[in-house]
Every structure is written in structure tokens, then in C-alpha cells.
Amino acid sequence: MPWVYMGYPKGGGWSKGWGKGYSGGKGYGGGGGKGANKPQALPEGFEVDTAKKFVGTVDAYYRFSGYGFIIPEETGVLPGDKVFVYWKHIHTSDRYPSLVKDMQVEFTVAVVEKQGVKTLQAQNVSAVGGGLIAVQDTTDEKKTFVGGQNLRYTGTLKFFLAKQGYGYIKVDPGYQYDKEGVPEEIRVETTEMNCGGANPAQMEEMKVEFGIWLTRRGVFKAYNVTLPGGAPLPALEEPSAV
Fold first, then answer.
1. Contact at 8 Å (CB) between 58 and 84?
2. How open is the CA angle 193-197-198, to the nearest 5 degrees?
3. Statement: residue 65 has pLDDT above 50
4. How far is it, in rounded angstroms, from Cα 165 to Cα 238?
């Protein structure tokens, strides 16, 4: 008899399966913490068509943790009517892969093993129709830049803490700015570390180039940080099984 979705048992839904433990900078939380429970296992006899394309709506996406959930338009086909999505499977033109709540996406699904159980995960996540997802362009339009969005500065990345998601850059001397108060050292956060769509590695004492923008709170921060010449920064090595 083919598998038919009848709903998960009471209390056995996604909220306990994935939890807050999948956190800490595009990775999974691992052993301890509130999210140490295993992901929801697939029902016995469930089979998935890995070539089938689904359209769905992003239910939630935690960009600093690098994961979220998609609700497919077609109900009763996928267990729980919700699919886990990991940043590595987002097809994007952004320097830092991300999704936005309520946006529509297209995706396939695959069976993966997490913490000893087989579960579903979204793959090949793209804009509807197969185009690249572009979220950061909209965000960048709202930024106030020092000298304009395309002006690049050089300096030394003193350090970047991958787990904490931030670092500091010492700007090379000699620049004149169109805004007052630009400090000698400015903060950079994970979303502005351009690793060609990957997660930034731990770094220190590295020559970089970047833009500078001013937050609404009056804080100067680095924008689109790359190696000199625009090459991507070193990426964090991720487990191949994810």
C-alpha cells in the first residue's frame, strides 16, 4: 500500500524536531542546548521523487544560523507539509545566501540522514522558474554609503570570529571621506563577508578591500568585504554530509 500522509502524532511536529540547537553561524548546534532533539523521522514506506519540483513559501529563515523552513503549496505530499532548508542549497547571486519570510521559491527535496534518522531537506532552492535568488540587492538599496556603493577602500582584517559572526578591519590611512566620524577600525559582520556564497572562515591579519556604510544608529560598518581585487575570502570548510 502506498504511503499516505495522515499527519504526525500529537506533539511530534517540527518544533521539537529542529529546534534552536541548529544555530551558531550557518551551522548546526550539535550536541547540547535546546535543539538537541533529533529531526522528525520520515514515515515508514515514504518515497520521494527527487526530480519533482515544488513551489512553496518561506515560513521562516534564520539568516545568521543559515537555515529555515519552506511550506509547499501542494499539501499532503510531504510529511508535515514543511521542509527544512539549509543555506548551502540556495541558488543565489547574493554574497551571503539568504531567504526572506513569505517569499515564494522553487525547490526539490532529498532524503538525508541527520542525527541517525532519515528526514527531508530542500535542495536546489531557487526563485520560481529557476532563477537565482537575490535578496541583498533590496537590502543594499536602503543603506547609506560612505562615498557611494561602488567606492572601495583597503585595509587589514585584524580578525574575524566565524562562530561569533563579526570582526574588525583597520582602514588604510590617507582616505578622505564625505561623512565625518569614520573611525580607523570598523566592524564587519558575517553577511558582508563575501566568500562567493559560502560561509566565512576564521581569519586574522589579512589584506582586504571593502565599502563602508552608515547604520541608522550612526555606526560605520564594512560592506562587501573581499580580498584585494575582488576575489572571494576564504570559506569555512563544511561537513560534506550536510
1. no
2. 75
3. yes
4. 16
Cα 161 to Cα 24, 73, 169, 193, 242, distances in angstroms? 11, 39, 12, 11, 22
* Chain-centroid distance, C-alpha 41: 24
- Nearest CA-CA partner of 80 in 32, 137, 17: 17
Contact 100, 135 (CB under 8 A): yes
CA distance 89 to 101: 17
C-alpha grid cell, residue 186: 570598523
pLDDT tens per residue, range 158-182: 999 999 999 999 999 999 999 999 9
Cell of 235: 570559506
Going by C-alpha positions, the residue among 61, 59, 55, 58 that lies closest to residue 77 is: 55
Pull the grid cell for residue 133. Answer: 535568488
Cα 160 to Cα 75, 172, 182, 206, 215, distances in angstroms: 43, 17, 20, 10, 20
Cα separation, 225 vs 210, in Å, equals: 4
pTM of the model: 0.70
